[in-house]
Amino acid sequence: MKILLLGTAGYHPGERRHTPCLLIPECRVMLDAGTGLFRAAAHLQPPRLDIFLTHAHLDHIVGLTYLLSVLHVRPLEKVCVHGTPATLEAVREHLFAAAVFPVAPPFEFCPLAAERIELTGAGALTHFPLEHPGGSLGYRLEWSGHSMAYVTDTTARPDAPYLDRIRGVDLLLHECYVPDRQADFARMTGHSHTAAVVELARQAGVGRLVLVHLNPMATEADPVGLDAARAVFPQTTLGEDGMEVEF
After folding, report:
1. Which domain holds residue 181?
2. Closest residue by Cα to residue 7 from 17, 16, 15
3. Is residue 33 situated within a structural domain?
4. 149, HSE (Cβ side, Cα atoms, 13 Å)
5. Residue 247 falls within a domain, yes or no?
6. Is residue 86 part of a domain?
7. Could you tell me which of 152, 109, 118, 143 has the C-alpha nearest to residue 5?
8. What is the pLDDT of residues 85-109, one digit of tens each?
């Protein structure tokens, strides 16, 4: 099982990274629809695609407009965009307002109702709330004996309310917007810094940690302090656009 990191930045694209978009081809599942979505065309598997949005902030949804060209190149029988009713209403009314984007791509809005969603095949996805201005969701996916969780746009801490929801996953993709020296900025904006994320991963007993939703303005090869992170949780990796992660 592999997950493709199509976009690993937050807020806006930069020279090195696009905004959040993750694809699990075998499950036909996409997590968030940021500017990295245009890269999905070569990897989509018919007959359908399920896109799960964490929230309606622009860096996580703007790629939905790219589906018009992606699905022209790679037609699918059905595409469902899942999210809370509030998230989907924001997408419908604002992103696809006639004056902004008048030709809607061929997808369906699918409001999340049940906490657990059975996926086509041998898998299931659950969602859980996160603390973030305007709200956000985390996701856990289990498929044929594999498990992963995706947590973005929240402030990590060792006793985070979602700790038990990610406990024991093979792979945790967690936002790490800034290094520890900017911890106050992270808390002020509803985001996470390195030490809090790796301690959370340690407490949750996850198999591997990949850091995503990184600051696009950071120019360093290592913008978060990997050596210090690995001292706490050795199985920590920095997410990069184009990376394929096995889990």
Report:
1. 2-240
2. 17
3. yes
4. 30
5. no
6. yes
7. 152
8. 999 999 999 999 999 999 989 999 9
